[in-house]
Amino acid sequence: MLSVIENNSEQYSYFQINRMSERDAPSVQYLLNLQSPKSRITMASYLNSVAMIFGNKDHVNFAWELLDRDVVNIIRDKLKEKRLSTSTINTTLSAIRKTCEEAFLLNLMSSDKYQRIKLIPNLKGNTVKKFRKINNIHVRAFLNECDDNSFKGLRDSTIFMLLIGCGLRRAECARLMLCDVDFEESELHLHGKGNKQRFVGIPEQVLDHINRYLIEIRGYKAGPLIVKFNKHDDIVSSSIKDDIEKCLTPAAINYILKKRGENLKKINPHDLRAEYATSMIEEGHSLNTVKDLLGHSSITTTQIYIRHDNKVAKKASTEHKVY
Q1: Active site includes 270?
Q2: Active site residue 193
Q3: Which of 11, 156, 182, 280 is deepest in the core (most CB within 10 A)?
Q4: Is residue 290 part of a domain?
Q5: What is the pLDDT of residues 307-318, one digit of tens each?
Q6: Is 30 a catalytic residue?
Q7: Does residue 276 lie within any of the structural domains?
Q8: Burial of 245 (0-12, 13-18, 19+ CB in 10 A)
Q9: Which of 155, 175, 260, 296 is catalytic?
């Protein structure tokens, strides 16, 4: 089998299989075990990338049960040849291991073969992500772009302030309900990945934007905080029968940032989240505190989001305690 992979791409059909039902696929069983619909979509894309190495269009009809340790090692090498990040390759390997576990549970793969695949190590080292620095000039320029005397403009500036001022994920911003805003305590009640809940304080400037947006546009009735507008600048309701506003999707928030920030080289939501994390560190807050505010389960993830510049590095080194 090893020679098939290394020497003859025409024989990749060896790993193609026609299943009677999608649920017979180990990969489908693995995806069904994931709680978040977004996670299922993301991990399915990783599995598809593996199947495509062997000429398959999708993961369902890929013969995961025929994998062994040698083949998975070759998959890892091929992903490295594509110059993918260490994080992406390791996530793909994790998806492969979980899928092979399902193949074992379905009696499609022997215990010995599964255990050998399970022991394949991740790649070492982390690729430092490059996040764009967002300074006061960028913030003013974006807010000026939103200041176009439209309801959409005021909403878009509120979205921007929530992302950079509270470090929200775009999906968290889209899911925010009015009841998640505690005006007395000046904090947000967030529902993050894996349904993890956390509280994040709202800076005064962000709270001012929220209040203006609510007073001038949305109002204070229950429902999504960030609402959708049509081309006539009117709020879109979920249906004709009710007046519950329709919320934006994470993709829509991403589009708004890119569209409004065209003159700023299209600001990315992750840039704003990274700016929030870096600013918190620069202000003297601990990495553990920032980890909790961002809703990360691992401090390693938090370190990736912090923009690594000389100022942060100098502050970290000078505050180091020798004894």
Answers
A1: yes
A2: yes
A3: 156
A4: no
A5: 655 555 555 555
A6: no
A7: no
A8: buried
A9: 296
